[in-house]
Every structure is written in C-alpha cells, then in structure tokens.
Amino acid sequence: MSDLDDFVSAEPPWYTGQGDSGRTTFGRHGDVAKTDVRVAAYAECDEANAAVSVAMAVGGLPIGVTSTLASVQNDMFDLIADLSVPLDAPEPATARIRESHLTRLERAVDHFAQEAADLSGFVLPGGTVAAALLYHARAVVRRAERAVWAAVEAHPTAVNPLAARYLNRLSALLFVLARGANVEHGDVRWVPEASARAMAQKENGVDARAATPDVDGDG
C-alpha cells in the first residue's frame, strides 16, 4: 500500500500482485522488504487492533469499557498512520501519536483501576470470556510494542517513539480492564510450582487440594 489514505480510498481490485516479489511500498518510507522492521511493526499494530475488536465484539463488556476501547481503536489507526510516514518526511502525516494520546490512556488506567480487584501479585490469564479476551489483547499489544521499539532502534529519525509508549500504556489499560472483568468471577492467583507440588502430594497420598491456587473473592 502506498499510504493509509490511498488504502482507505482504493477501488477494487484489492490485489495487484505487485508485492509478490517480497517487497512493498510502505507509506512514505518507499520501497522496502516485507520483512522490514517498520512493516513488521505496522502489521503487529494491525493485529493488536483486531484483538481489541474481538474483545469488544464477544466479551459483553460494559458500555463505559466499550466506548473507551472504541476510542483506542481510533487511536490505533492514528498510530498506524504515524508509522506509515517518517518523522522527517517533508509532508505532514495524516495523524501522529502525541503526548495527549498517552495522557488520555493514563487517565483511563487510573479510572478503571478503581473498579478492578486487588492489583497486587500475579494472576493467571482467564476467568470470564471478557477477561480472557482482554488478557489476550494485552499480550498482542505487548508484542506490538516490542516490534515498534525495534523499528525505533533501527530507524531513530523516522519512527515515532511515542507510538511504542502508547502501546505500553495500552497494555496497562487492557490489564486493569481484564482484572475488572473478573471482579465477580474471581482471579486465580499464580502459585509458584503449584502443579509440581500437587503432583508430589498426590504421589505421597496427600490431598492435592492443599496446592490449589487461591481464588479472589472466595475468602
């Protein structure tokens, strides 16, 4: 694709075969390999946004959460547009990630953290469908963050580091939203080597329930 605007306004056919050599025209970065770290960062962010959409569509989340995530999805398009245009490009980008994007996410994290369970300690991902999808989206976002940092390291004058910082804050938001989605269901806390201890106790004739992780909300 040549630019985000070109992609959005494109007319069929949706395939051209021009990328069959393993290269693509990536925004205003020009002709690059499809394995280029900038293309990889773009693709990881696209997947992260899709993961958020699945949580919104299937999770049965409260309206306050879905409206926040809808704003996040728009931000992610800002971020993708940002990645498509070098910072030092002569023409301005359609959108850039700015400090204000981070501030809004940080405020959202602080707000939803008040509705979540005790945020100390480590918990196993899962619980309700909503929580499981949000935990998964968080993992995808963390991978996208690493990909963007790799692009920043490789092209420090071209790739906006605020994009990576935004993804870092987004992963924090998805974590507190997942914890909030499990308030009634209860989180299962990580107990180091619990499975190994349970097996050892079973082999020794001890009740394995003694090694079962505690569940928040069950006392």
- CATH 4th-level superfamily: Cobalamin adenosyltransferase-like
Unreliable stretches (pLDDT < 50, length at least 5) are 215-219
How many independent structural domains?
A: 1
Counting helices, strands and paired strands, the structural category is mainly alpha
Give helix and strand order, one letter per element, not per position: HEEHHHHHH
Strand content: under 5%
Give the name of the CATH architecture.
Answer: Up-down Bundle
The N- to C-terminal Cα distance equals 55 Å
- The geometry reads as globular
CATH topology: Hypothetical Protein Ta1238, Chain: A
CATH level 1 name:
Mainly Alpha
DSSP summary: helix tally? 7
Radius of gyration: 21 Å
User: What's the main sheet like?
Assistant: 2 strands, antiparallel
Strand line-up in the sheet with most strands: 1-2
